[in-house]
Write a structure and sequence with these properties.
Helix content is about 40%, strand content about 20%. It is of the alpha+beta class and about 60 residues long. The protein has one domain: 2-Layer Sandwich (Herpes Virus-1), CATH 3.30.40. Keywords: Metal-binding, Zinc, Zinc-finger.
Length: about 60
């Protein structure tokens, strides 16, 4: 499930959660791309547009198979 973080970058939810789990000891979270820091850990919001694109690609891939 694609999510967007406060800096505007989008990641798969499990990927960003895994990345941030490594940051929990420092209690300082950042964007893997732009390195913007967040404290406390920000909420994750579903990127609905990207989610729709992913679903369309999945359906197209299944039809082509």
């Amino acid at each position: 499930e694609p999510v967007t973080i406060p800096c505007g970058h989008s990641y798969c939810m499990e990927c960003i959660r895994g990345y941030w789990r490594k940051c929990e000891l420092k209690a300082e979270y950042s964007c893997p791309q732009c390195r913007r820091a967040f404290s406390p850990r920000p909420a994750l919001y579903k990127n609905t547009i990207l989610a729709e694109i992913v679903e369309k690609v999945k359906r197209t891939s299944i039809q082509d198979a």
